[in-house]
Specification:
The complex is a heterotrimer of chains A (about 300), B (about 250) and C (about 350).
Chain A (H helix, E strand, L loop, with lengths): L3 H14 L18 H16 L5 E2 L13 H10 L5 E6 L6 H14 L2 E2 L8 E5 L12 E5 L13 H9 L4 H14 L10 E3 L3 E3 L9 H4 L5 E6 L4 E5 L5 E3 L26 E5 L6 E5 L2 H17 L1
Helix pairs in contact in A: 2-3
Chain B lengths: L3 E12 L2 E12 L3 E5 L6 H8 L7 E6 L2 E2 L5 H9 L2 E4 L3 H4 L6 H11 L5 H14 L16 H13 L5 E5 L7 H18 L2 E6 L2 H7 L2 E6 L2 E7 H6 L4 H12 L1
Parallel strand pairs in B: 3-8, 3-9, 6-7, 7-8
Antiparallel strand pairs in B: 1-2, 1-4, 4-5, 9-10
Chain C lengths: L7 H17 L9 H7 L1 H10 L5 H10 L4 H12 L17 E6 L50 H7 L27 H9 L3 H12 L8 E14 L8 E17 L8 E10 L3 H14 L1 H4 L10 H7 L2 H9 L6 H20 L7
Antiparallel strand pairs in C: 1-2, 2-3, 3-4
The chains are: A alpha/beta (about 300), B alpha/beta (about 250), C alpha+beta (about 350).
Protein name (chain C): Carbon-phosphorus lyase complex subunit PhnI
GO biological process, one term (chain C): organic phosphonate metabolic process
InterPro entries (chain C): PhnI (IPR008773)
């Protein structure tokens, strides 16, 4: 730790000398950016969250050098659990090569110097925005979700003082009313992403804005799932092998939504697909959103062909 | 008469120096309709709020089947309010969700107690809309497009759908046209008889009390000044204030 | 054949290099120095210190330079730096009666102990563009020397309180919460509300304060006093046990006098709305004191009917670092969710078309 004196004498000179956006490992910052006291505070919140699956734990989120809403919650959770031996994978929309994923991976390479990977199987920590990898995760892996809005009831009740009460009383009739209204008006539940789930039969939880397609993957997942919301200053968790149910009606069961096509690259018919517009004459194609999974399947197909 | 469902005694509540309730006792038996009458400011609405657990008294107790209502946790009280109790507000806007369809309004209490079959919820909602004489075609319409009388009937359907044993009603016909009032009172009377409901109704309308109630309590300045069987109290009022109330109705 | 987009890493590096180039502008024009920004854009520096919640003129000026003059971006840079600094403790409360004043005005009295001091203000300037400033090498304007004000100048609200006409503020027993360490919780106590407002977005505070004057909330404000100047910051190190002076900071304090019609337990009296901000920020301090008074509706038993009285609404939306992050995050890719919406919409449309009566065909 530095004192105010050496900050003014040395810190300012340091700031003038080096550009904080360049170079590899950054000097003058603790491992994984956050100071150890902050990490301990966040780990305590994580432990509480694991102890009460699906329950939102308020925490003293710090200001990060990336904007609120761009993954500061996930980044703080990752920073608090990361050790030097970890291998980190960061995805956004299922892809390792989207700009925000690159930016976050770059941040951790610079402030923690940890190994990074694009391969789901090789990662010990996977930070994600909006997707769960297609490959089944293992007990020795941790999923960290970036969460913009941790409160599943916020559209029905904007006041946090009131939603806190509703959670305490497990008073979730209102959420079902919303689903009822969808079916009455549209014939379908209209929620396509951030589809609410009941965790361990007790807490209603936002799965973060993953497509409804990914919801079933959360159910009894072997990996620990951690959720960080930086701007809203909440952490929550799903311990391994916990029951996670998407809300539905007996006669209108939850259905995962995906484009009814095969991936143009790997031919998969059971993965989540992105629609790519190829021209302005209605041309389009569908490709896997999970780029690592798709590459793996393409490689496997290529080696099978070579073997034949 | 059977053992009372709800009993209250010694209820006292002050707002600053002003007493809203002074040593009030009341009980409601199974299937009994009890009316609390009095002019505005007499404390009758405050009494209803205290009895239904919405407000705590300074002294006294309210018991539901022997259990102290104000000593139970909020969770238990809210569970009671959506299962064995119901509350019909004077202004249907306070008791309905105006941005949710009529069917959703009726279905909410069913879903709150665990109903998870859309088709059954809808069938139940339709049957209740029929019982309160709301056209089935309006099931997906928002209550804000309903008339005041329809909104009030919808609120009653929403409250009764889970078959509560006791319903609190706060001036349920207030703010409605006289012709609409009569129809609503008939509906409340037939439903409460049919379902064997206990009803605790607050009203300033003596005629409504006569039509609905088995028993009447007359309140004035936070006190119960007279109580008894409806016919006895209205035909042979003992307290001068009751006499005044009754004669003003007769004169009108 | 379509190929998945790659090379994001290179694109980001190139974009940042370009950003840097546009920040510098035409290299033929001399580069701005931090000292120039600090000295010649002092109000921008003050705003960045306030919203960045870090009193350091040098760092604020640096942030403005780096942010190309985008003051919210500059405040963000300063906040992100501030949060990495160790926290030693809380200073002693500032004593603004002992402020080294540059400006002090009251709208409620014609004259008062300590006097009215206009100070360096835009008030009463005529807003005419001064083309002389466009000429290089302007003569330095020399202001006449102000007679030194008294070392101690009583606050207007204190004068009223001595008469029993101004509600006394209760001294807090416990140490106030720290917004930078603990998340907001509701109901929020006044110290936490004031911390939130002190670093809130100036535009947001201004609009909310303005709304209270236009009937959204029941405000009848008078500027009891605005004072601008420097105060000594004192800190008591635990190992010493007595306060030592750390130095001076520039602040603006505003006390707004409001009517209060009294309640059963309290006689009719004036109540105050309070604003205190880093640097010279009168607009911010005044708006803050209007909103502070609005947010006291709950404790004073007033009806909560207006946005400025709704503490969840005000406190959750005042922070421009949070707000800008979340508004701007919408430009991040959302195509996975959009795809899910698209497929759902297509499916709903199919259901609706299948349900169409035969006659429509």
């Amino acid at each position: 730790m530095s004192t105010p004196d050496d900050r003014s004498a040395e810190g300012r000179g340091h700031l003038n000398r080096s550009r904080p956006n360049e170079g590899t490992m950054m000097e003058g910052y603790n491992f994984a950016y956050l100071d150890e006291a902050t990490k301990r505070m966040i780990r305590r919140a994580i432990l509480k969250a694991v102890a009460i699956p699906g329950h939102q734990i308020p925490f003293g989120a710090r200001e990060m050098p990336l904007p609120y809403g761009w993954g500061t919650g996930g980044i703080q959770v990752t920073a608090s659990i990361l050790g030097p031996a970890d291998t980190l994978k960061v995805i956004d929309q299922g892809s390792d090569d989207t700009t925000n994923a690159i930016s976050i991976r770059r941040f951790f390479r610079r402030v923690a110097g940890v190994a990074t990977t694009e391969r789901t199987a090789e990662a010990s920590v996977i930070q994600t925005r909006h997707r769960i990898p297609e490959r089944t995760l293992r007990e020795d892996q941790i999923m960290v979700y970036q969460v913009p809005q941790p409160e599943p009831l916020f559209k029905l009740e904007p006041r946090r003082a009131e939603t806190k009460r509703l959670h305490a009383l497990a008073d979730y009739g209102l959420m079902h009313v919303r689903l009822y209204e969808d079916i009455a008006r549209l014939g379908h539940i209209a929620k396509a992403y951030d589809y609410p789930v009941m965790v361990n039969g007790r807490y209603l939880m936002s799965p973060s804005p993953i497509p409804a397609f990914d919801n079933p993957k959360m159910h009894r997942m072997a990996a620990l799932q951690l959720f960080g919301a930086g701007r809203e200053k909440r952490i929550y968790a799903i311990p391994p092998y916990t029951e996670v149910r998407s809300l539905d009606f007996e006669d209108h069961p939850f259905r995962p939504i995906r484009a009814p096509h095969a991936c143009a690259f790997c031919g998969s018919t059971d993965t989540y697909l992105d629609e790519v517009i190829t021209d302005d004459a209605g041309g389009r194609m569908f490709v896997c959103s999970d780029t690592d999974f798709c590459t793996e399947r393409q490689d496997a197909a290529a080696s099978r062909e070579a073997a034949e | 008469m059977t053992t009372p469902l709800l009993t209250a005694e010694g209820l006292t509540l002050r707002f600053g120096a002003i007493p809203a309730l002074l040593d009030v006792a009341i009980d409601v038996a199974e299937g009994e309709v009890v009316a609390i009458v009095g002019e505005s400011g007499s404390g009758k609405t405050t009494l209803l709020r205290v009895l239904s657990g919405l407000m705590s008294p300074d002294a006294g107790t309210v018991r539901w089947l022997g259990q102290d209502v104000h000593a139970m946790g909020e969770a238990a009280r809210r569970r009671l309010m959506r299962t064995e109790w119901g509350f019909v507000h004077q202004n249907p806007r306070d008791g309905l969700r105006l941005n949710v369809s009529a069917g959703g309004n009726v279905g909410e209490r069913l879903m709150a107690v665990g109903a998870r079959h859309y088709g059954n919820i809808r069938t139940e909602a339709l049957s209740w809309l029929a019982r309160v004489e709301v056209d089935a075609a309006r099931i997906d319409d928002l209550p804000r497009t309903f008339s005041g009388g329809m909104q009030q009937r919808l609120q009653i359907a929403r409250t009764l759908v889970t078959r509560p044993r006791l319903v609190f009603m706060d001036e349920p016909t207030g703010g409605l046209d006289v012709s609409v009032q009569a129809r609503l009172l008939d509906l409340i009377r037939s439903l409460s008889r049919e379902l064997g409901l206990s009803v605790l109704i607050v009203t300033h309308d003596i005629a409504a009390a006569r039509l609905l109630a088995d028993r009447i309590l007359v309140m004035r300045r936070g006190r119960v000044v007279e109580q008894g069987l409806t016919d006895r109290v209205l035909d042979d009022p003992q307290h001068p204030y009751t006499q005044l109330l009754v004669s003003s109705v007769l004169a009108a | 054949m379509y190929v998945a987009v790659k090379g994001g890493e290179r694109a980001i590096s190139a974009a940042h290099a370009w950003l840097e180039e546009t920040r510098r502008g035409d290299p033929a024009v001399p580069e701005l120095t931090i000292a120039q920004i600090e000295q010649q854009m002092p109000l921008a520096v003050d705003r960045v210190m306030a919203e960045g919640s870090c009193h350091d003129r040098f760092l604020a000026a640096l942030a403005i330079k780096q942010a190309k003059g985008d003051l919210i971006e500059a405040a963000f840079l300063l906040r992100a730096y501030r949060t990495t600094l160790p926290r030693f403790g809380a200073s002693e409360p500032l004593d603004t009666t002992r402020m080294r004043l540059r400006r002090r005005i009251s709208a409620t009295y014609k004259d008062l102990p300590g006097g009215q001091v206009l100070g360096p203000t835009f008030d009463y300037t005529h807003r005419l563009l001064d083309f002389a400033l466009a000429a290089e090498g302007e003569d330095r304007a020399v202001a006449p020397e102000m007679p030194a004000p008294a070392a101690e100048v009583p606050r207007v609200t204190e004068l009223l309180a001595r008469e029993g006409l101004m509600q006394r503020e209760a001294l807090a027993e416990e140490e106030p919460g720290d917004l930078t360490r603990q998340p907001l919780a509701f109901p929020a106590e006044r110290p936490v509300r004031l911390q939130n407002l002190a670093r809130g977005d100036e535009g947001f505070l201004l609009a909310l304060g303005y709304s209270t004057q236009r009937g959204y909330g029941n405000a009848h404000p008078f500027v009891g006093e605005i004072r601008v100047g420097h105060v000594t910051v004192e800190f008591t190190p635990p190992e010493l046990g007595f306060p030592i002076e750390l130095g001076e900071i520039g602040i603006t304090e505003c006390q707004m006098v409001n009517q209060f019609k009294g309640s059963r337990t309290e006689p009719a009296q004036f109540t105050r709305g309070y604003g205190l901000v880093f640097g010279h920020g009168e607009r911010r301090a005044m708006a803050m004191s209007l909103v502070d008074r609005g947010l006291r509706a709950r404790e004073l038993g007033e009806d909560i009917t207006a946005p400025a009285q709704d503490e969840e609404f005000v406190l959750y939306h005042s922070d421009n670092i949070e707000a800008t992050g979340f508004v701007e995050h919408l430009k991040l890719p959302h195509y996975v969710d959009f795809q899910s919406e698209l497929e759902n919409l297509r499916s709903i449309r199919r259901t609706a078309e299948a349900a169409l009566p035969e006659a429509a065909e």
